[in-house]
Design a protein that fits this description.
Number of domains of chain B: 1
Structural class of chain A: mainly beta
Number of strands of chain B: 11
Number of helices of chain B: 14
Radius of gyration of chain B: 19 Å
Number of domains of chain A: 2
Number of strands of chain A: 8
Strand content of chain B: 15-25%
Oligomer: heterodimer
Helix content of chain A: under 10%
Strand content of chain A: 25-35%
Strand order of the largest sheet of chain B: 3-2-4-7-1-8-11-10-9
CATH architecture of the largest domain in chain A: Beta Barrel
Shape of chain B: globular
Structural class of chain B: alpha/beta
CATH class of the largest domain in chain A: Mainly Beta
CATH superfamily of chain B: Thiolase/Chalcone synthase
Helix content of chain B: 25-40%
Number of helices of chain A: 1
CATH topology of chain B: Peroxisomal Thiolase, Chain A, domain 1
């Protein structure tokens, strides 16, 4: 996390659920079942059928990058750190930091799951 | 658009460099004077003004009296977008002579009178910035890593791009790195910025201005300008469609619709293009554009460049001024400036012999979680 969390107003249900009990919600179209994140219109069915639903919080690393410099002072102790785009099992991409594994050991295709119990203000992911 | 119905009759390019300490509006004024001189017209000929980004003071300070002033901001794709808007204004009878203007001074940030230190790359990344994803290099690194993992592209392939661009810049006095050669080993030894990019995979912000004057081809033929360049085709695409399809990282941009429209308008094929000038903030950008335009097969961009594919004597001489990485970073105007120079025979040491058709691309305005950019393609010709 860098500084205070800035949560988009449209995503309030996601952040409220994460803060309350670390539930990991996605925005789902109840007509076709497509999941999205953050808050979205279904590309086929618009905003009407979109509801926030609990999901697995798991997926695979689609791609990633490793930071060797702390561009913000809050992250100085984390360098080097990995930012990955996780392809969640329900479909959407999710940008996060990968924890619990050395950056050199991170691989595309690695299965990861949202870390719970650490009080992370922003959901971080670790290898399953 | 009828191919060749719009012409670029004036080009003004100021000094481009690090920390020039010249304000942005003054850079645009200097570029305007050069463009007017180049076109052989007076200020009052300008009846339309299109500005990359937005600013309220330009018309007053530049002494212009056009009928409209349009801001446009789609990041590094703004440059081709200004030409498309100018063509629209000319062909719909709203203007006869449109100035497309750019002037930025990001590397003077922090100087007295220049406000806070800033960078093009650190703005607007939303949620990813909150987990420490800062800057444009990391946004492109995600594509580079995908390409490496999917196709076997290596850091040395990207290094081959860096070395080729530097070789182009070596004898170009208008390039930041003129006279400063690098080797593949220098690339490999340069510090890591964000994996997989070394420092020599990345461009640096520079200050500079550029103004182009566009008019109808009909009027261009009556003007003093002896080397008008013609807008033959244009198209745009946006990679947000691939976000919705969940296929972002295989695509640098959505080039297909931009290229299809531009080539169809121009009535030419890829083989007809004499030189390509790609938007190239990072080495991977050239590799992926070569593939997506079809200059080489998918996944073969690295080996293509390493075997001389974009060299002056290669199949498609590209980024002949050193591009953004070894030339200068004037956003999408860097490739446009070099395409114009090639077609006017002004590229000096890296002039492509008998360059008649040039492709120029723009790419920009990422933000938020989607990591997708707008893309613009222009096909410019020495003849209508």
């Amino acid at each position: 996390m860098v500084g205070a969390l800035v949560a988009g107003a449209l995503d309030a249900p996601f952040w409220d659920a994460w803060k309350a009990d670390e539930s990991f919600l996605l925005h789902r179209c109840s007509t076709c079942g497509r999941h999205d994140w953050p808050a979205s219109c279904c590309v086929k069915h618009g905003a009407g059928p979109m509801v926030w639903v609990p999901t697995s919080g798991a997926g695979v690393i689609d791609t990633f990058t490793i930071f060797f410099h702390a561009y913000m002072k809050e992250l100085a102790s984390e360098v080097p750190y990995t930012v990955a785009v996780v392809r969640l099992d329900e479909g959407p991409y999710f940008h996060t930091r990968i924890v619990g594994v050395e950056p050199q050991a991170v691989k595309s295709g690695m299965r990861v799951r949202v870390r719970k119990g650490q009080g992370d203000p922003f959901p971080l992911f670790a290898p399953e | 658009m009828t191919p060749g119905s719009v012409a670029i009759v004036g080009m003004g390019v100021t000094k481009q460099g690090r920390g020039l300490g010249v304000t942005e509006v003054e850079l645009r004024r200097q570029a305007l004077e050069l463009a007017l001189l180049d076109a052989g017209v007076e200020r009052d000929a300008i009846d339309g003004y299109i500005l990359a980004s937005h600013e309220r003071e330009d018309l007053r300070y530049l002494g212009l009296s056009p009928n409209f002033s349009w801001p446009v901001q789609t990041g590094g794709a703004t440059a081709p977008c200004t030409f498309i808007m100018a063509a629209g204004a000319i062909l719909s009878g709203q203007a006869e002579m449109v100035a497309c203007a750019y002037g930025m001074a990001p590397s003077s940030g922090g100087m007295p009178g220049f406000g806070a230190r800033m960078s093009f790359g650190s703005l607007g990344y939303g949620y990813p910035a909150q987990v420490g994803m800062i800057g444009a290099a990391s946004a492109h690194a995600l594509h580079a890593r995908w390409h490496m993992d999917h196709y076997g592209t290596t850091s040395r392939h990207m290094g081959a791009v860096a070395v080729q661009l530097r070789n182009h810049a070596l004898n170009r006095p208008d390039a930041m790195t003129c006279g400063k050669p690098i080797t593949l080993e220098d690339h490999q030894a340069s510090p890591m910025v964000v994996d997989p990019f070394h420092m020599l995979d990345c461009c640096r912000d520079t200050d500079g201005g550029a103004v182009f004057l566009l008019t109808s081809a009909e009027r261009a033929r009556t003007m003093a300008q002896k080397r008008p360049v013609f807008l033959l085709g244009a198209g745009m695409g946006h990679n947000i469609g691939n976000w919705h399809k969940r296929d972002v990282y295989a695509h640098h941009d959505d080039i297909a619709p931009a290229a299809a429209r531009a080539f169809a308008q121009a009535g030419v094929s890829l083989d007809d293009i004499d030189t390509a000038q790609f938007y190239d903030p990072f080495t991977i950008s050239i590799i992926m554009q070569l593939e997506h335009y079809g200059f080489c097969k998918p996944g073969q961009g690295g080996p293509f460049v390493a075997s001389g594919g974009i060299a002056l004597d290669g199949p498609i001489p590209s980024n002949t001024g050193g591009g953004q990485i070894s030339g200068f970073y004037a956003a999408g105007f860097t490739p446009l400036i070099e395409a114009m120079k090639q077609l006017r025979g002004e590229s000096g040491a890296t002039q492509v012999r008998d360059a008649r058709l040039a492709l120029a691309s723009g790419h920009g305005l990422n933000g938020g979680v989607q990591n997708t950019w707008s893309h613009g393609t222009l096909i410019l010709g020495a003849e209508a």
